[in-house]
Amino acid sequence: MREVLILAGEASGDLHGAKLAERLRATRPDLTLTGTGGERMAAAGVTLLERAEGVVGFVEVLRHIPAHWRLLRRVTARIRAGDVALVILIDYPGFNMRVAAAAHEAGVPVLYYITPQVWAWRAGRLKTMARVISTAAVILPFEEELLRRHGVNATFVGHPLLDRATDMPDRAEARRRIGIPEDGEVLALFPGSRPQEIARHLDDFLAVARELERRRPGLRVVVSVAPTIQLDRSRVPYPLVASASFDVLRAADVALCKSGTTTLEAAVAGCPCAIVYRTSALSYAIARRLVKIEHIGLLNIVAGREVAPEFVQDAFEPARVADALEPLFVEGSAPRRAMLDGLADVRARLGTPGASARVAAIAAEMAR
User: Fold this and answer.
1) Containing domain of residue 45, as a range?
2) Does residue 107 sit in the same domain as residue 223?
3) Is 192 left (phi over 0), alpha (psi -120 to 50) or beta?
4) Would you tell me how many other CB atoms lie within 10 Å of the CB of residue 282?
5) Looking at the structure, do residues 122 and 236 belong to the same domain, yes or no?
6) Euclidean distance between CA atoms 137 and 289, whole angstroms
7) Where do runs of H (alpha helix) occur along 38-183?
8) Contact at 8 Å (CB) between 250 and 174?
9) pTM for this model (two decimals)
10) What is the number of domains present in the chain?
11) What is the pLDDT of residues 306-317, one digit of tens each?
């Protein structure tokens, strides 16, 4: 049996890789799926060469370099052995672009799903991408034209989170699912999916919640917990809800989101939010020099304007964030109506459900 190598490096990639693997196994049962990822990919039938744990931040990545080089040598040897029919790369560009180069050198086609964010930084990668990537399956609407303009064979497949949003509950059902009363105001906290994000965000997320509780008596707070982390319940005085982000967003009136895919989930769920992010001082200083976009939140990037307020690094002050969130609780208020209109616009721009099926169809054909 020919082998398809699927390489994901963090929680979101594991999720998207699992959905892709399920579709690919259904259409091409003759293929063996191996790769790197997490529990979801393993459950979907991917034999894992190594479990992957993503890291973020320029400084934080440094201590993981030796392990990355060991894994790269192992993956490259597997590609060169001659049994790999296709390499599918999911996000994680620092590692996966090197794999793409090795696969190209070995004559193995490369399908890159969720490509490097060259529109934000390192635009110099575009030339390399055009050389080593056979096909790019992009998930943001403006990426196809940008990559094609620089010689990359790119196709917009829609955003994969829409596949998870086809049966979102209404507010009453969402609150029943996560075990909170149907009445009253609810604030949802999304502090991050990586340990270092939790370390830098959690205390101030809780401080925002306490400030809003003081201002809005009766407010309930829930904390969404990514499958990649464990929160110390002694630190968090609110209910923890694991691996159910859409349920939490549909149950909430307002959310506080760490910058990332969660902001797009908020747009799809129609939950007004604010966006925050904090990293190490050195990583932030480097990013300020390298990143070339005005906004950090994906929903604002897709919208091309600030739909949700952003608080980055030192601007992430609990009182300021509470000031921005408080008007969003008021049903029918101008700030809430404007936010909901902006979120609906972002959702419309993300395409239609079926990204995983479209990528699986591309992969099935390439693996021939």
Assistant:
1) 3-163+353-366
2) no
3) left
4) 12
5) no
6) 29
7) 39-43, 58-62, 65-80, 93-106, 125-132, 143-149, 171-178
8) yes
9) 0.84
10) 2
11) 999 999 988 999
